[in-house]
Design a protein that fits this description.
The protein is mostly helical and 199 residues long. Helix content is 83%, strand content 0%. Helix 2 runs parallel beside helix 4. The longest helix has 32 residues. It starts with a helix and ends in a 10-residue tail after the last helix.
């Protein structure tokens, strides 16, 4: 049972990737858990509009998953796509924070679409990069170990975001989350570039 996390911890490339996925998981769950509350209580949208904007972000994520996977497959550059998604999440969080002083407007729609496409669409590219970082015999253990970190971020991230939003405000919380996206991009870009060979 401990083999998957042990594989992650003793492999620097996997550890960086898994740590980045914890941030991705946190950003994804913050989007689904807090977007409506933020749009209503801070930005000023009515509840129906905020719900429609959440739906738009989820549709963007549904479309984003196969689209990013197709791009990574066609370009054979899943790492670059994942770095781009990390930066897209950072940008989305920054733009979300910028909605507060603007108030309710049509600008919320492109922001939530980009937010959803990146924060909900990263999963398949992440799993592809996991497979690129290990031998075929290690794929199962590496995938389960990596997802353990991902779900850790899903559990802890929204709690920390909510606490920060309560104490310092949603704008500060989203800007902090944007910093997390930048850190994830650095983690992925710092991974070793050679693909392992099966023995």
């Amino acid at each position: 049972m401990l083999d998957p996390p042990y594989l992650i911890v003793r492999n620097p490339a996997l550890l960086r990737l898994a740590a980045a996925s914890a941030i991705f998981g946190a950003i994804q769950l913050v989007l689904s858990a807090f977007l409506v509350v933020y749009l209503v209580s801070v930005v000023g949208h009515d509840l129906i509009t905020a719900g429609a904007l959440l739906s738009a972000s989820q549709v963007a994520g549904i479309l984003g998953r196969p689209a990013w996977g197709y791009l990574a497959d066609r370009t054979q550059a899943s790492r670059k796509v994942l770095i781009g998604l990390s930066l897209g999440m950072a940008l989305s969080c920054t733009l979300a924070a910028a909605l507060a002083p603007l108030g309710p407007s049509w600008l919320s729609l492109p922001v939530v679409i980009v937010f959803g496409a990146t924060a909900t669409g990263w999963n398949g590219v992440f799993l592809a990069e996991i497979m690129n970082a290990v031998t075929p015999a290690e794929v199962g253990a590496a995938t389960s170990g990596g997802l353990l970190f991902t779900y850790g971020g899903i559990v802890v991230g929204p709690t920390l975001f909510g606490a920060l939003a309560h104490s310092a405000g949603f704008v500060a919380a989203f800007l902090t989350l944007a910093l997390g996206g930048l850190i994830a991009a650095l983690l992925v870009s710092a991974m070793p570039r050679s693909r392992p060979v099966a023995h």
